Automatic annotation (TrEMBL):
PANTHER family in alphabetical order: QUINONE OXIDOREDUCTASE (PTHR44154)
Domain Enoyl reductase (ER): 31-332
Pfam families hit by this protein: ADH_N, ADH_zinc_N
SUPFAM superfamilies: GroES-like, NAD(P)-binding Rossmann-fold domains
Keywords: NADP
One GO molecular-function entry: oxidoreductase activity
Keyword NADP recorded: yes
Name this polypeptide is given: NADPH:quinone reductase
Length: 339
């Protein structure tokens, strides 16, 4: 019988008591949201370079749905497969070679390749170099919402686009998990931000995030709006949604402008003469998390949570994800056992 009422010990600097089994939301086959079901699984063992985290919050994103549907089936994952590639929690055990982290640390992580299972569980074992202390200004709940989205947003602004003070940028699809953070990071770098979003709630949220100009992405004159914003042409664009509106926004770029988009944006922006197109992946590591923590602090980052589901309702979270128009980030509260 699965224990749905377990409480975690108060953190200490010694090894915490860790049970042998844990509650997890996992899949036994590929398919729709309904294949995510409750499991009692062994708590993963920790190797010398790993840490074991008692999970507080797990992020939910399109990448989870892609894995669930079998998009990466060629990698032959083992079932039951615990989803969840980012989140936050408390370190409860450290491997013999780990020096940077200790038991009791509040941490967050993004780890794409994890054969020992993901964050949709009470415990997750991860390589220590994919784990970092959470930013000082965030609690575990909000920190757990941003590893993938925060790294993707910051690396798009800083590394892919190299955005400079005084430049203009279009952030297309700005009301989602990546976009809401990208607006704030672009402002931190001193850029002037033109953002597109959809729906009244999305438009309002992106304005709250500080965009200088916010336009409904469904407007037929979106390219004219962008040209008014930057009469000499826009310097850069971060494309977080595909389609006709994206192609219209591209019309507003200046010659020599640049467009970046994370892998997974479909349809991807089409190549254009005189425009540099940059496709990238958000990556995690010690240095990347140090940069993210610094940017979170400097930007006084706000992390919009779209919806928070208890872990046993992970399938419902995936149903909501499939509906689209998610304003902010969907998360799972791992300690909440309500169904």
């Amino acid at each position: 019988m699965l224990d749905r009422t377990r409480h975690f010990d108060t953190p200490s600097h010694h090894a915490m008591h860790v049970p042998r089994t844990m509650f997890a939301a996992a899949i036994d086959r590929f398919g729709g949201p309904e294949v995510i079901t409750a499991h009692a699984l062994p708590v993963p063992e920790v190797d010398a370079g790993e840490v074991l985290i008692a999970v507080d919050t797990a992020g939910v994103g399109q990448w989870d749905a892609d894995v669930r549907e079998g998009y990466f089936a060629s990698r032959k994952p083992h079932f039951p497969l615990v989803l969840g590639y980012d989140g936050a929690g408390i370190v409860v055990k450290v491997g013999s070679r780990v020096r940077r982290l200790k038991v009791g640390d509040e941490v967050y992580s993004y780890n794409w390749e994890n054969p020992k299972g993901g964050f949709y569980a009470e415990y997750v074992a991860l390589p220590a170099d994919k784990v970092a202390p959470i930013p000082k200004r965030l609690d575990l709940r909000h920190a757990g919402a941003i590893p993938i989205t925060g790294l993707t947003a910051l690396q798009g602004i800083d590394d892919a686009l190299g955005l400079k003070r005084g430049e203009t940028i279009i952030i297309h699809g700005a009301s989602g998990g990546v976009g809401t953070l990208a607006v704030q990071f672009a402002k931190l770098r001193g850029a002037k931000v033109f953002a597109t979003a959809s729906g009244k709630e999305g438009l309002e949220l992106v304005r709250e995030m500080g965009a200088h100009n916010v336009v409904d992405g469904k407007r037929v004159d979106i390219d004219d709006q962008a040209r008014r914003f930057a009469p000499d042409g826009v310097d850069a664009m971060l494309a977080l949604a595909g389609g006709d509106a994206l192609e219209k926004c591209l019309n507003a770029l200046r010659p020599g402008g640049r467009v970046a988009h994370p892998n997974g944006v479909e349809p991807a922006p089409k190549k254009r003469r005189g425009v540099r197109l940059i496709r990238y992946d958000g990556i995690s590591g010690v240095r990347e998390f140090e940069r993210l923590n610094a940017a979170v602090q400097a930007a006084r980052l706000r992390v919009p949570i779209a919806e928070c589901y208890p872990l046993p309702r992970a399938s419902k979270a995936h149903e909501r994800l499939a509906e689209g128009h998610v304003v902010g980030k969907i998360i799972l509260a791992v300690h909440d056992r309500s169904v």
